Amino acid sequence: MISIDTVLTGSVAPLGPRDAPSAIHKLPSSGKNRLGIEGFIKDAQGDRKNHGGPEKAVHHYPYDHYAIWQQEIGERDILKQAGAFGENLSTTGLTENTVAIGDTFQAGDAIIQVSQGRQPCWKLNIRFDTTDMSLRVQRSGRTGWYYRVLQEGTVEAGDELRLIDRPSPDWTIHKAWHILYVDTLNFAELSVMAELEHLAQNWRDYAIKRLASRKVEDWSRRLQG
Q1: Cα–Cα distance, 13 to 93 (Å, whole number)
Q2: Which residues of the chain have pLDDT under 50?
Q3: Which alpha helices (H) appear in the chain, and where do they start and end?
């Protein structure tokens, strides 16, 4: 059984030298947290163009990765508790290798479905005071993932995260990451990705554009700001 160890939410606040609006700083939220179609009611996003919305309603990051990050970038206060990566749900026992696109979970009395992996952005560089943290996350495959909300409800720490449907077991988050960032011009797999039911449209669009252009998009603005 997978238990939700922590539910986290955050408010918009200035981030970094440019005072960019961001709600990446998430804190544990006790009690029953109302979950709507666009995320937890108590949660916020500073950049609604690139964060939040129905296909990125809930961000899940495995606490399993924290020890690895401590080994790679050193002991950091930010890694002493969940929330370092701006996640809404923290668990142990689920990773990108075991979670697949379309996996549908009962969480409290809500139902959520895996929609896409997380694409790290430059705000992680500031949060970790590490100039290439976003790139490290992208290269590692330890990105976390997003859910869409199929049924609104309430979620609290201690609730079981129970798998109730798995329509695309072969399309793990790791596989989608590998096609997007490693085997970037595998046109056979891109053709499948472009038509993959339950995958968020923006990820399907990446596949469609690569198939048409025969080249990979520029990631520098997202990673460096």
Answers
A1: 32
A2: none
A3: 66-73, 123-127, 133-140, 173-181, 187-194, 201-213, 220-224
Backbone angles phi, psi at 119, to 5 degrees: -100, 110
Average pLDDT, the chain: 96
- Is residue 196 within 8 A of residue 208, CB to CB? The reply is no
| Residues 6+ away with beta carbon under 8 Å from 71 | none
Handedness of CA 171, 173, 177, 178 (dihedral sign): negative
pTM of the model as a whole = 0.96
According to DSSP, residue 33 is labeled E
Residue 165 to residue 16: CA distance in whole angstroms: 41
pLDDT at 50: 66
Of 96, 113, 66, 98, whose CA–CA distance to 182 is shortest? Answer: 96
Which residue ranges form the domains of the chain, and what is each CATH number? 6-167 (2.40.33.20)
Q: Give the pLDDT confidence of 200-211 residue by residue, as tens digits.
A: 999 999 999 999
List, in sequence order, every beta strand (DSSP E) within the chain: 6-9, 13-15, 20-22, 27-28, 33-36, 39-40, 58-62, 89-91, 104-107, 110-117, 145-151, 153-155, 161-165
Query: Pseudo-torsion of CA 155, 50, 68, 9, nearest 10°?
Result: -30
182 contacts: CB under 8 Å, gap ≥ 6: none
